[in-house]
């Protein structure tokens, strides 16, 4: 029978890759909880309308990239292409969007139909952070400072913070008129096919195009930061002033618009020069109109997402913790007692393995060495009869014979000694 293969663009994650992902998630919990964020888990499947209304009908994500299909009742459903809209839907549905400032983080798989490439798969994973309920620029600054703290905790420091303001619902329309006027005379020899459509439907996205000819012919496009209303200008000045005071370096990028329609005011990306064309490892900003766009109250919010595959490309190998013991049973009649001994040790908090079938002494010693265990525990015929265990120190050398009822205390003492050395 022909074997079944995985779908292109959907990757399996074995160690050490899965170990890196676990490290990314564990670090997120540790850092974000220090800032008052709690973990939220939302479904991967949502009604298509959520993303059409939340992300924007004219975005590339909605137009080209979503996995959308009807269910058996004919309802249009979509595998989530990003997390923010789903988190907002959950907060609205549960009534939490009206509770003042609420802070949540989530993580998990997202889905976009794109050409698979380095750092970008059709099923990819994101760490998502959302703070809903405050319009204050100091919250924007703290979110950026927390993101910087998180990336440093992952061991990543050689990154560039790009920062921009996209204005608000009051001042952005006037800027869009100026931008449309600038783009009006451009034709297909100057702009790609997508940007010829975007200049009419979503002109901001033209500034974000990565096609060289589009970048060249829009190099002199008017800057949105030159058209901010006084309130937006003051908001952005407070954000940058706080980042300056905290010593967080950043680069102002007036072409940074992100790919989703819900962003207003503060917008940012964290960029690496070490992972090729897909250089953004994190991005986000403020989305004050998003909650109301999906039927909730008109409350402000700010957040970001980190691409876990791209973070993993930048993280050096993460070593899994070495097991505490490997149990070698030299007498086949003692396999059951060996398994019970291993179970007692695990209940006491130690990690390790025990054999399930008879094996030669040589193969068990080789397996003990390969496991990286700190101690090899040996149960031979004599030890089984006497109620003892031979404890071989696999790092410092030497061995001791210990009574079984003293084994837990002995291992604990030896591990503490190793920590102090």
Automatic annotation (TrEMBL):
<dbReference type="GO" id="GO:0005524">
    <property type="term" value="F:ATP binding"/>
</dbReference>
<keyword id="KW-0067">ATP-binding</keyword>
<dbReference type="GO" id="GO:0005737">
    <property type="term" value="C:cytoplasm"/>
</dbReference>
<dbReference type="InterPro" id="IPR041715">
    <property type="entry name" value="HisRS-like_core"/>
</dbReference>
<comment type="subunit">
    <text>Homodimer.</text>
</comment>
<feature type="binding site">
    <location>
        <position position="258"/>
    </location>
    <ligand>
        <name>L-histidine</name>
    </ligand>
</feature>
<feature type="binding site">
    <location>
        <begin position="262"/>
        <end position="263"/>
    </location>
    <ligand>
        <name>L-histidine</name>
    </ligand>
</feature>
<keyword id="KW-0963">Cytoplasm</keyword>
<keyword id="KW-0030">Aminoacyl-tRNA synthetase</keyword>
<dbReference type="GO" id="GO:0006427">
    <property type="term" value="P:histidyl-tRNA aminoacylation"/>
</dbReference>
<keyword id="KW-0648">Protein biosynthesis</keyword>
<dbReference type="InterPro" id="IPR036621">
    <property type="entry name" value="Anticodon-bd_dom_sf"/>
</dbReference>
<keyword id="KW-0436">Ligase</keyword>
<dbReference type="GO" id="GO:0004821">
    <property type="term" value="F:histidine-tRNA ligase activity"/>
</dbReference>
<feature type="binding site">
    <location>
        <position position="126"/>
    </location>
    <ligand>
        <name>L-histidine</name>
    </ligand>
</feature>
<dbReference type="Pfam" id="PF03129">
    <property type="entry name" value="HGTP_anticodon"/>
</dbReference>
<protein>
    <recommendedName>
        <fullName>Histidine--tRNA ligase</fullName>
        <ecNumber>6.1.1.21</ecNumber>
    </recommendedName>
</protein>
<dbReference type="InterPro" id="IPR006195">
    <property type="entry name" value="aa-tRNA-synth_II"/>
</dbReference>
<feature type="binding site">
    <location>
        <position position="130"/>
    </location>
    <ligand>
        <name>L-histidine</name>
    </ligand>
</feature>
<feature type="binding site">
    <location>
        <position position="112"/>
    </location>
    <ligand>
        <name>L-histidine</name>
    </ligand>
</feature>
<dbReference type="InterPro" id="IPR015807">
    <property type="entry name" value="His-tRNA-ligase"/>
</dbReference>
<dbReference type="InterPro" id="IPR045864">
    <property type="entry name" value="aa-tRNA-synth_II/BPL/LPL"/>
</dbReference>
<comment type="similarity">
    <text>Belongs to the class-II aminoacyl-tRNA synthetase family.</text>
</comment>
<dbReference type="InterPro" id="IPR033656">
    <property type="entry name" value="HisRS_anticodon"/>
</dbReference>
<keyword id="KW-0547">Nucleotide-binding</keyword>
<dbReference type="Pfam" id="PF13393">
    <property type="entry name" value="tRNA-synt_His"/>
</dbReference>
<dbReference type="InterPro" id="IPR004154">
    <property type="entry name" value="Anticodon-bd"/>
</dbReference>
<dbReference type="InterPro" id="IPR004516">
    <property type="entry name" value="HisRS/HisZ"/>
</dbReference>
<feature type="domain" description="Aminoacyl-transfer RNA synthetases class-II family profile">
    <location>
        <begin position="1"/>
        <end position="323"/>
    </location>
</feature>
<feature type="binding site">
    <location>
        <begin position="82"/>
        <end position="84"/>
    </location>
    <ligand>
        <name>L-histidine</name>
    </ligand>
</feature>
């Amino acid at each position: 029978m022909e074997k079944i293969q995985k779908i292109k663009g959907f990757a399996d994650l074995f160690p050490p890759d899965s170990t890196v992902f676990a490290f990314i998630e564990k670090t997120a919990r540790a850092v974000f909880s220090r800032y008052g964020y709690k973990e939220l888990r939302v479904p991967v499947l949502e009604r298509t309308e959520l993303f059409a209304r939340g992300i924007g009908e004219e975005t590339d994500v909605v137009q080209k990239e979503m996995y959308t299909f009807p269910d058996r009742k004919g309802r249009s459903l979509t595998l989530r292409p990003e997390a923010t809209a789903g988190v907002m839907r959950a907060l609205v549905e549960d009534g939490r969007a009206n509770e003042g400032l609420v802070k949540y983080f989530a993580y998990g798989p997202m889905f976009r139909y794109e050409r698979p490439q380095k750092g970008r798969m059709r099923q990819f994973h994101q760490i998502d952070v959302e703070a809903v309920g405050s319009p204050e620029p100091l919250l924007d600054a703290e979110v950026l400072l927390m993101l910087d703290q998180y990336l440093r905790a992952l061991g990543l420091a050689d990154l560039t913070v790009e920062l921009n303001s996209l204005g608000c619902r009051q001042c952005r329309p006037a800027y869009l008129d100026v931008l449309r006027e600038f783009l009006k005379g451009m034709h297909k020899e100057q702009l790609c096919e997508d940007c010829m459509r975007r200049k009419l439907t979503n002109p901001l996205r033209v500034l974000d195009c990565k096609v060289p000819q589009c970048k060249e012919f829009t190099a002199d496009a008017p800057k949105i930061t030159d058209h901010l209303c006084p309130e937006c200008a003051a908001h952005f000045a407070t954000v940058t002033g706080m980042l300056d005071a905290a010593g967080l370096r950043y680069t102002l990028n007036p072409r940074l618009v992100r790919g989703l329609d819900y962003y207003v005011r503060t917008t940012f990306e964290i960029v690496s020069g070490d992972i090729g064309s897909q250089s953004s490892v994190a991005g986000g900003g403020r989305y004050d109109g998003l909650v109301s766009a999906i039927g909730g109250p008109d409350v402000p919010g700010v957040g970001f997402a980190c691409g876990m595959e791209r973070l993993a490309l930048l993280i050096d190998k993460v070593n899994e913790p070495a097991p505490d013991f490997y149990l070698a049973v030299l007498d086949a009649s003692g396999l059951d007692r060996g398994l019970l001994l291993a179970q007692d040790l695990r209940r006491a908090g130690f990690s390790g393995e025990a054999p399930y079938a008879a094996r030669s002494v040589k193969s068990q010693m080789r397996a003990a060495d390969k496991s990286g265990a700190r101690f090899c525990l040996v149960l031979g015929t004599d030890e089984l009869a006497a109620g003892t265990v031979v404890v071989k120190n696999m790092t410092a050398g030497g061995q001791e014979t210990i009574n079984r009822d003293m084994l837990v205390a002995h291992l604990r003492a030896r591990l503490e000694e190793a920590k102090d050395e």
